[in-house]
DNA sequence: CGCATGCTTGAATTTAATCAACCCTAGTGG
DNA sequence: CCACTAGGGTTGATTAAATTCAAGCATGCG
C-alpha cells in the first residue's frame, strides 16, 4: 500500500527529544527525520487510511484527491516543496495523496506531532495559521467551482501556481505546471478538453505563451488577473465592499 | 454596520474569570455572554472586517457567503443553533454572515477566546476537532461543486439538512429549509430555476413531498442517498477503495 | 521505428443558464 | 373581509457553455 516499507524509522522524537534545539517552525520538526523517496505516480496514503503520520514535502509535487462513487475524481489541492500535509484531520485521511513528479518527503508520527504542538506555545499559532490558510484556500476553491467559468478557472489556477512558486507577479514570469491536463481538469472541475481549449485560447490571444507541455510564460499578467475574476487588485487590509446587485448572473 | 450597538457588553472574561467553573465545551465559553438578537436579513459581520469576535448561534439560521467582483454570490455554508463561527481565521473575516431567520447569538472576543483556548488543554482538542470538521465539510462541498449534477447536489443538500437537525435518517422525516431557493442555489452552485425544477422533479417522482415552501418530507430516504452520489452506505471506519477507472466521466 | 500516453482540435450533444411569463402566498391596507 | 401587492417560487422556451464522442497530433521511451 504505502511504499517505503523498508525505510528505517528512528525512535520518534517526543518533546524530550528536542531539548536544546526546539524548532521555531513546523518544518523544523521534520529536520531529523529520514527522507523518503516517491516515484512519480506513487501513493503516499489513501483516503480512509488511519492517519498515522504528518508529512513534509522536501521536494517535488503531489496531488490530493477524493474519488466518488462511480469513479469520478476530484483533486482538492496540490502540494509543493515546503508544504505540510496531514494536519487537519482526526483519525482518518480525508483524501488520498499521490506523487506527481519524483518526490521526497519526511514523515512524523501524528501522535508525536500533536504532543509537540500541545507542548509548544511557539508552534501552536503556526499550526493554527496553517489551518486557517488551508481553510481560506478551500473557500477560494469553492468560489471558483461554484461560480467561475472555464477561462476564469484556468486564469485563477495560473495565478495560484505563479504565486506559489515565485512570489513574482510580473509579466514574463514562467509558471511550472508539473501536473497533467487531467490533473488540472479534475482540480478545476472541468474536462481535459475544456482545459486544453482554454489554454489554447489564452495562447492565441497572446496572454500566455506555451513553453512546452509543463510550462507557460505569463505574457500579460494584468489581463490574467482581470480574467481570473478575483478582485486581486485589493489584497491589502482594506477591501472594497461590493453590493450584491445587478452583477453578471452567473 | 453591525446591529446591537446598544447592547451592553460585560467585561470580557479572561481565563481568570472562569476560575472554578472551567467549561468543558466550547459552547460553555459563551454561557455568560449576553444574547443578541438579529432580525431576518440582518448582517452579523462582513467579509474583510477585522475579526474581533467569535460567535455562538443560540437560535436561528444564518448564511455565510462571499461576493466576487461582479456581484456573484457564493454561499459557503449555513449556520444553525449550536454552531460556532469565526474560529478559523486570522485577522479578518473571510466571509460575511447574515441572519436568515430571526436569530439569537452570543459573542466572545477573539482575543479572550484564544487566551482561553491556549490555557485549556480541555478545550484545545475541541477547537481542533471543530477546525477538522469545517475542513471536511469544505472538502465535501468541493466535491459537490466540482463533479455533481443538479440532482445530486440537491439530494446531497437535503441529506445534509436532514442530518444536521435530527440525527434521524429514516424515511418520512421532515426537513426544514429555512433559507430561500436563491440561498440554496448560491450554495449549490446552481440557479434558482434549476433548484426549483429539481425539487419539482423529486416531488413528482415521489421521492420527497413538499410541505410548504420551507419544508420537505423525505419519502424515500434510500433513493435520496443513492441519488446524492455519496457512497454513504459506508460511513463506518472501513471504507471501500474504489479504483479510478471507467466511471461516469462527469 | 513503433507504440503509448498525453494533448489538441472538431462536431454533436447535453445540461444547466438565461429570458420571460405566470402563479402562489403572506402581508398590507382599505 | 377582501383586494392589492410584493416577493419568492414555478414553469416553459430558448440559448450558451461545457461535455461527450471522435479523430488526429506530438512527445518520449522501449
Number of strands of chain A: 11
SS summary, helix count of chain A: 7
Largest sheet of chain A: 4 strands, antiparallel
CATH topology of the largest domain in chain A: Jelly Rolls
What is the CATH superfamily label of the largest domain in chain A?
Answer: Jelly Rolls
Strand content of chain A: 15-25%
Helical coverage of chain A, percent range: 25-40%
Order of helices and strands of chain A: HEEEEEEEEHHHEHHEEH
Lateral arrangement of strands in the main beta sheet of chain A: 1-8-3-6
Shape field of chain A: globular
Most extensive chain interface and residues per partner = A-B, 55 and 56 residues
* Gyration radius of chain A, in Å: 20 Å
**Poorly predicted runs of 5 or more residues of chain A:** 1-20, 234-247
CATH architecture of the largest domain in chain A: Sandwich
Amino acid at each position: 500500500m504505502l511504499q517505503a516499507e523498508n525505510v528505517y524509522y528512528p525512535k520518534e522524537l517526543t518533546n524530550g527529544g528536542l531539548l536544546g534545539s526546539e524548532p521555531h517552525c513546523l518544518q523544523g520538526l521534520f529536520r531529523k527525520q529520514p527522507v523518503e523517496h516517491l516515484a512519480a505516480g506513487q501513493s503516499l496514503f489513501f483516503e480512509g487510511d488511519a492517519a498515522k503520520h504528518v508529512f513534509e514535502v522536501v521536494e517535488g509535487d503531489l496531488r490530493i484527491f477524493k474519488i466518488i462513487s462511480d469513479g469520478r475524481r476530484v483533486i482538492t489541492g496540490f502540494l509543493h516543496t515546503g508544504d505540510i500535509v496531514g494536519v487537519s484531520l482526526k483519525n482518518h485521511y480525508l483524501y488520498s495523496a499521490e506523487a506527481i513528479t519524483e518526490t521526497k518527503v519526511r514523515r512524523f508520527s501524528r501522535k508525536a506531532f500533536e504532543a509537540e504542538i500541545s507542548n509548544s506555545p511557539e508552534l501552536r499559532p503556526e499550526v493554527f495559521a496553517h489551518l486557517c490558510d488551508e481553510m481560506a484556500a478551500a473557500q477560494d476553491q469553492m468560489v471558483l467551482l461554484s461560480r467561475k467559468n472555464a477561462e476564469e478557472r484556468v486564469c485563477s489556477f495560473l495565478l495560484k501556481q505563479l504565486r506559489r512558486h515565485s512570489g513574482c507577479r510580473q509579466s514574463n514570469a514562467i509558471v511550472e505546471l508539473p501536473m497533467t491536463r487531467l490533473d488540472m481538469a479534475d482540480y478545476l472541475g472541468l474536462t481535459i478538453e475544456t482545459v486544453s481549449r482554454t489554454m489554447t485560447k489564452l495562447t492565441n490571444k497572446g496572454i500566455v505563451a506555451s513553453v512546452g507541455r509543463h510550462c507557460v510564460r505569463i505574457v500579460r499578467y494584468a489581463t490574467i488577473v482581470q480574467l481570473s475574476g478575483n478582485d486581486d487588485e485589493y489584497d491589502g487590509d482594506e477591501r472594497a465592499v461590493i453590493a450584491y446587485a445587478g452583477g453578471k448572473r452567473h
